[in-house]
Amino acid sequence: MKLKTLTALIVTTYIGFNFMAQASAPQPVFTPEQEARIRELAAGYLVTHPEILVTVSQKLQEQQQLRKQKLYALNVMEHQTELLQDPDTPTTGPEGARVAVIEFFDYQCVFCSQFAPELNKVMKAQPDVRYIFKEWPIFGSRWEASLQAAHQGLAVWKEKGPEAYVTYHNAIYASGHHEGNLTAGDIQAAATKAGVNATNEASHPTILEKNSTLAESLGLTGTPGVIVMPLTGATPDTITVFPEAVTAEKLLAAIQKATFAK
């Protein structure tokens, strides 16, 4: 075996043992003298081969993401009823749908605005999925329009049903106004497009509070938060949680995973 190859083997083995030691604190594997020599070899090798550190960092990030997804999925499992069967939540899609896409969002969130056309692409491509919209105006304390838009959306849902709600939802984001720029005029125009002639002054604080509590219970820390899961027989392996805006392609892949899961 060449010296370079042997050195690489020793270094990577040592790094592996170090990670194992951090995780499970086993008994020492090497003598103090061996430890000192390996550290010397490792320092020299890593200076000339820094790509190893990049590979290790990437692997750790992957492992962290997997653990985070597992935790999200377990939280989703505990709150399936609130996610899938809340009569106060705007919903569209066939009764016989096998998969649900659930979005927690704020109409003033720039990332939600960026995600809106991606979700619209998926809704057109996958009309057999149930889409569930959780109004979560996290910017309501900063921008009043955030709360106004959420209350009006719920009013449209209750008065006109799912088709009108989706029209309203898309119209708000189509305005291109977010981060404090959404106006009462934008909200009125979206409501009018959805078939509601006058802005509804009714508020729905209980529903919004319920959505906020649910989002926090799931571990979501901001908007958008997107969950893809089977409507029945969900397991942690069939659930995908995106705590951020994603592309239509990633969302479609998650739908496929939930659809064909055993």
Output the strand order for the largest sheet.
Answer: 1-3-2-4-5
The amount of helix comes to 55-70%
Number of strands: 5
Radius of gyration over C-alpha positions, nearest whole angstrom: 25 Å
Low-confidence runs: none
What oligomeric state do these chains adopt? single chain
**For this structure, what is the CATH homologous superfamily of the largest domain?**
Glutaredoxin
Overall tally of structural domains? 2
How much strand?
5-15%
- In CATH terms, what is the fold-level topology of the largest domain? Glutaredoxin
Order of helices and strands: HHHHEEHEHHHHEEH
Shape: elongated
Largest sheet: 5 strands, mixed
Query: What is the helix tally?
Result: 10
Quote the average pLDDT: 87
Please state the second-level CATH architecture of the largest domain: 3-Layer(aba) Sandwich
Structural class: alpha+beta
Distance between the termini: 47 Å
